[in-house]
Amino acid sequence: MARKLGLEVQKLHFAIGGKMILQEFSLEIPPGEACLILGPSGSGKTTLLSIMAGLQRPDQGMVCYDSTTLYDLSESERDQFRGQHIGILFQTFHLIKPLTVRQNLQLAYSMPGKTSDTEYMEAVLQRLGLKDKESQKAGSLSVGEAQRLALARAIVGKPKWLLCDEPTSSLDDHNAHEVMALLQEEAQQAGTSLIVVTHDHRVRQHIKGHIVELGGQS
Fold this sequence. Notes:
Blueprint (H helix, E strand, L loop, with lengths): L6 E10 L2 E11 L4 E5 L6 H8 L7 E6 L2 E2 L5 H11 E4 L11 H10 L7 H10 L15 H13 L5 E5 L7 H18 L2 E6 L11 E4 L5
Parallel strand pairs: 3-8, 3-9, 6-7, 7-8
Antiparallel strand pairs: 1-2, 1-4, 4-5
Helix pairs in contact: 3-5
């Protein structure tokens, strides 16, 4: 039987030190649709995102993107698949601080071997209010600017799936609205499936798609 198109997560289990973080978690996201995963600290949101990104192997279960079963791949094959098809907005940004804003964005093309799209990169910088910062070192940015740069880096490669960990956590209401509007617009234009994990209930109003709530202790 052919696999369904889109992202399919089946019966994930993951435990740390005997504590069950995820149990029997399943999810299906059709191509081009959005999904919001809400939950407090300790509910397994970031762990789930890491597993879906191919960064952390589950104890049991399956993650399948279209016809590709992620954990049937070798580690190097998963790295290649992620670089080509998945964009990730990490909560902790993972910027290269000694490099400039522009150089950080160029890595989104060079590391997975994609062709640079300078026109699109310029447009993203402009829309995120970073155009006048492009020659500035990433390490000198404010927290809000660094988060916007991390967002820009996640989307400039036009990934098929965009996974976002707490994209509004450091932003006030206005900037949170701007970031979510940009995420939704870029995802819709590119046919990208958008998956957001967060504790921020402000995001709910921006996601027109699946909403999943995880339990856990705060």
